[in-house]
Amino acid sequence: xxxxxxxxxxxxxxxxxxxxxxSCTIRGKFRLAEEEAxxxxxxxxxxxxxxxxxxxxxxxxxxxxxxxxxxxxxxxKQGKEHxxxxxxxxxxxxxxxxxxxxxxxxxxxVLVMAEYLHVGAxxxxxxxxxxxxxxxxVVMYFxxxxxxxxxxxxxxxxxxxxxxxDLEPWLETGIHVFIGPSGVGKSSLLNKLIxxxxxxxxxxxxxxxxxxxxxxxxxxxxxxQGGFIGDTPGLREFGLYFVEPEELSxxxxxxxxxxxxxxxxxxxxxxEPNCRVKELIESEELAIxxxxxxxxxxxxxxxxxxxxxx
Length: 310
What we know:
Elements: E1 2-8, E2 13-17, E3 20-26, H1 28-33, E4 46-51, E5 57-62, E6 68-72, E7 81-86, E8 90-96, H2 104-117, E9 120-126, H3 133-148, E10 152-155, E11 175-179, H4 186-193, E12 218-222, E13 228-231, H5 253-256, H6 276-282, H7 288-303
Parallel strand pairs: 3-5, 8-9, 8-11, 9-10, 11-13
Antiparallel strand pairs: 1-2, 1-4, 1-12, 2-3, 4-5, 6-7, 12-13
Helix pairs in contact: 2-7
């Protein structure tokens, strides 16, 4: 039997196929084969499984992945790859208008990851009901910046009627993930999109302005329209361990479009003379905020501390 993994708790996997949902374990060979990753099977994986007499299953094969979203593991498994979700059609970066405030550096890191993996990406500015005159200038600046780069940008609110109307058409097909720091309202958005999910929500710490972690396991949730949304534990940092310093600019669309216009073909847009990117930054034709994100990532890549920065 074949199916798609909807939930992973580390030892059991809920697998959906046309006949229903089955609780499955995996054979030990998977853990031995996946030495570079902390988890051999993740939500979004398409798998083959055998059915036991008690209607539980044993996953015997994982089919080839189209892509995967991952970060570097921490703790005892530090240095290994921690895969979050597989076969993603679109990654939505969730930020809030306020409480906590927008983090452009986080947005840019996830966009680099999406570019690298050839995953579609969009940005959700949540808590739009908190928009006021003080926030509007900053929020709309970044909304226009990312929209002009070709990324989908939508505004949502879980506090007003129709607050997710602009997002819903994008979620009718495929596998989507919400990626963002805890506290930006990912679980509240899912509760609004699918009221019967009843996901836990957490308050934002007043001292740190960072949300309290509320999601404890990864889950793929079926939308009434047919698509899926991945609910994953809140991420405060996103590793860029897969990016080589000399290749980083390839994942910034506005810099990639300028390849060949710098004096040196392997220009890193940092210290080299006659750099077209730096010229456009100085003339304010390219956003200084994106360039600062780029330099922070470049420094991290060169030092080997590729998970630093928030």
